[in-house]
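User: I'm putting together a teaching handout on how multi-component assemblies are represented. Below are the sequence lines for each component of a complex, exactly as they appear in our records. Could you produce the 3D structure of the whole assembly as structure tokens, so the students can see both representations side by side? Please keep the chain order the same as the input.
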Amino acid sequence: MQREGKPKTRVVVLGGGTAGWMTAAGLAKLLPDLAEVTLVESEDIGIVGVGEATLPHIRGFVERLGIDEATFMRATHATYKLGIDFRDFGSIGTSYIHPFGSFGEEVAGVGFHHWWLELERQGMAAPLGDYSFAVAAAKANRFAPPAEGTSLASTYGYAYQFDATLFGPFMREFGLANGVTRHEGRVTSVERDGDSGDVRALVMEDGRRIEGDLFVDCSGFRSLLLGETLGEEWEDWTHWLPCDRAAAMPCTHETEDIRPYTTATAMPAGWRWQIPLQHRMGNGYVFSSAHLSEDEACEAIRVAAEGEPLADPRVLRFRPGRRKHSWSHNVIGVGLASGFLEPLESTSIYLAQMAITYLIELFPEGGAIDGRDRDEFNRLVDIEYDRVRDFLILHYHVTTRDDSEFWNHVRTMAVPDSLAAKMDLWRKAGRIEKYADGLFYDASWIAVYVGQGLLPDKHDTRTAFADPHRVAAALERLRQEIDGEVARMPVHVAYLKREAARLAAQPA
Amino acid sequence: MSAAGEPLRRIAIVGGGQVAILTAIGLKRAVPGCEVVVLVTQGDPRDFADHAASALPFSNRLHHRLGITEDVLIGQAGGSHRLILRYIGWGGAGQHGAMAYGSASGVPQQARFAAQWGGGSRSAGAARAPGSLAEVLANAGRFAVHQGEGTGPVDKLDYAMRWDPAAYRALLSAEAQRIGVRLVSGGIARVEMGAGGVAAISSTQGERMTADLYVDCSGIARSVIGAHPEAEWREGTERTLYYAPLGQGMLALEDRLSLLPEGWLLELASRSGLQTILGARADIHEEAAARALQTQPAAKVALHEDAVREPWIGNVIAIGDAAACMEPLAFLPIDLAHRMLDLLLELLPGRIIDPRERSEFNRRARLMLDGVHESLALHRAAPFARQVFAGDDPPDAVLSAIDQYTRRGRLPFREEYAFEAEERIGLYEALGFTRGIPPQERSGDARHVAALQAEFERSAKAALAQLPPYGQWMMQRLGARQA
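Assistant: Of course. Below is the structure of the complete assembly, with chains in the same order as your input.
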């Protein structure tokens, strides 16, 4: 259906990495009547392939595009993810799982964690994670999709752990099948309108000129359009998030089991990930180059990886921060071209996805951009980045570690005012600053605070009125109920195999 | 190691209206060991939350939590149910629409569908099909509250309650005393300030009272917060309210909010009597108001909106009209009071009030207030309202929200908002704003729309067959109570 004869908006996506193909595929599939999508990529330029671990939101993206989950998982060698196991963050030897799910439930209008804190004080509480379905399932290496409704088995969500180098190509294939035009080659110059300063066309090495109304910069850290061409200012966050390198190295699985969760282990100059895929384990050491050399990091990941190495360590470089505006003139940055927050909470793909979602909602018709939509887009992207940033900093700052320069720095650094206020509220009153927009709500903050050993001075006064033995008995019942239901779930590997078999049995 | 804070020992609540008493019930239930005293003061006709005869669905849940059951509201306080608020003329002559409640109000799931078939505003003469299941039921006069868990379309309907304000207040008062709240009559004579805020208050009967926490529910008298040197106020619009004599009692599933050249006209179909209120522009003469009201007004009240910037200062918290005076449109003043009470119960302080808890309360309460002011401004920004209330220029944030809605079908996210997304869409449509079709919905195919339409018709038909006439069901319910 063509609307009122308005021409389609010509969108040119620059960059064939994960962000580029997600953008192109999303626009082509969801705005077939409004957008004409072209993607420019060069085989000479490698892709970073950020984010092997994702957040539950990715399921919405896959579903929205009408992609079958099992097909998608097979193509990307994906496994299920129930959360992240953080080790040695608060102090060496401690660990906790940050689940995609809640802890217990509110009783008499008082949040669960207040009751738990009261029992903890009395020495009658089990670890907080024992009251979370997602944590219990993760620890038991079990997985099944959450139930509908309000039962206990509905109190969690899940995401995927997948091979990022396969996700991009999967989206490419999907994008091409949905009408994206692809141009191969290097961009040598960018043509701008003399009056407005808008980008008019990309000029390729072989002389081709690719015109557009709207340009999406997915050129990675180079940020060819938003950064190099338009000079959009970069806001550096290295002082809060000092990690600026990763040494990545895949290896074989050590055991038959595949964990339905990602592991993040704190290291002397950062942390390392273990992301279990179907066919291998992803490993990487995210570190601060001010505190560790690249060679040292590569050596450290070789030593730390548990399986047989499948390749030599590869070093990725990045800068934490963001462009002050993600949408400037007729250029929108998606992915690394617009900003980067390190992968500690698997937010890279989420941030790209949110930018694409907002772009779709605010998509300019007939090639004409309305300044109000641009402002709204930038406002929304700011909220996302600020909230994720504060939550990431929290993982570094809430620690008693003093065993390295790096940890001494992050433990003692000044944090953003917005985070300082949130931490103060927790410390003094055991409360979480409440918001419903953006990422990471109450349960996430509580998981990190408690998991990293920051208990508040006070919790809700009402917990003192109840008989602690009755509260303890109620919590114990919850724990047993969770354990009982988890024991009936299939183990993760078995569930993956069952899904694979189901898919194989389907007619092609 | 974390410890539970020392609980509040004594709370003094100042005010004599329904907000003060409900607040007392809420606090007494939260901290049973605490002495809760209400210093009963005289109200003002401009205390709209205190005089509210109906609220929004949020209040049903609050009431339930505080032990005020729907049965009691119906049996003792003239309670009845509203499924829709019908807006008439806000978009211009002949335009009308209905705002329903809950996430399954029907309009929203597919805006495209809604725009083509149901919810969109229509000009005079053009047939307008009901945009929601609630409207279908209200038109047919059929409804019954379903008891127990269900998943059918009817179970997802939400509704608001009406009540008789005097009976409701009496009911709350009895309940408060039953659970141990002490009511002290005589009004407030003196507020003593000390280093930590309010040091004591004295009643006109000579009783001097100290408390850990003072809750000001005294309405626009602002007996306590008004005496606080740190309280700052922001001003709003001016309006004159004319009240028609109470009409016949009735059982109806809808109330009406019309826009006339003189101002807005609320017709609240209460069991205890039809209440008609004209919210007139401040410059409208009394004769013109009487013509608009179609009768001589029984009462007249001039109001000047204002709101406190921080409702919790030191050891004083203002709730209800004491925190914000605003014109009583769309039941927002009482809804705000109830949501602020709920917030206080969530962030209940101990004896020692932590400044961070206080600022978190203020942060969220401000978001609530901003949201309510935005909803009010949205009413004044409706196409015809821009003429009627010329001079009440909508703030930029409201214009920007309207722009996003009408051009793109988007609702910018709001924290602590009175209405859910679906209800907001219903409100925009009822006010005469036509939703823009979001880019991602432009390419939907006609079969999908037809399927949705058929599904809606099926569930509407099923609901009509399933539900009894509302009056019949209410009579049964009342009869069952008496039996």
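A couple of points students might notice: The domain at 1-53+164-232+309-353 of chain B is CATH 3.50.50.60 (FAD/NAD(P)-binding domain). The interface with chain A takes residues 1-8, 30-33, 65, 345-350, 354, 356-357, 359-360, 363-364, 400, 403-404, 407-408, 410, 412-413, 415, 438-440, 442-443 of chain B (CB under 8 Å).
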